[in-house]
Specification:
Elements: H1 3-16, E1 20-26, E2 36-42, H2 45-61, E3 68-71, E4 77-81, E5 85-91, H3 92-98, H4 100-103, E6 109-111
Parallel strand pairs: 2-5
Antiparallel strand pairs: 1-2, 1-6, 3-4, 4-5
Length: about 120
Amino acid sequence: MEAQEIVEIAAQAAAEKLATDISIIDVSSIFVITDYFMICSGQTGRQVQTIAENIEDKLRELKVRKIGLEGDKEKSWILLDFGAVIVHIFTQEQRNFYQLEKLWSDAPRRTWETG
């Protein structure tokens, strides 16, 4: 499965669990280890966890292998590594603090829209 398809499925899965501010950043010209970062937000640690689980479930159904999972105890930031796509799910407070989008401000990006 192509990276573009994986990131689209991940974004849809996040939206299904009411993730907000879903951004897709094309970092293929910056990194050799991945093609896309997807960043989204949840209101609470529990919602962040639910979003992550839905993304994992949808991609597992399509036989997309998860390479890694990182996160803090409070579930305020979860990272899912699918190789060509890395997903960051934050609470809004953590997202505002880390401001990952600013690190790749020169990379092409778009906001994922439902429907």
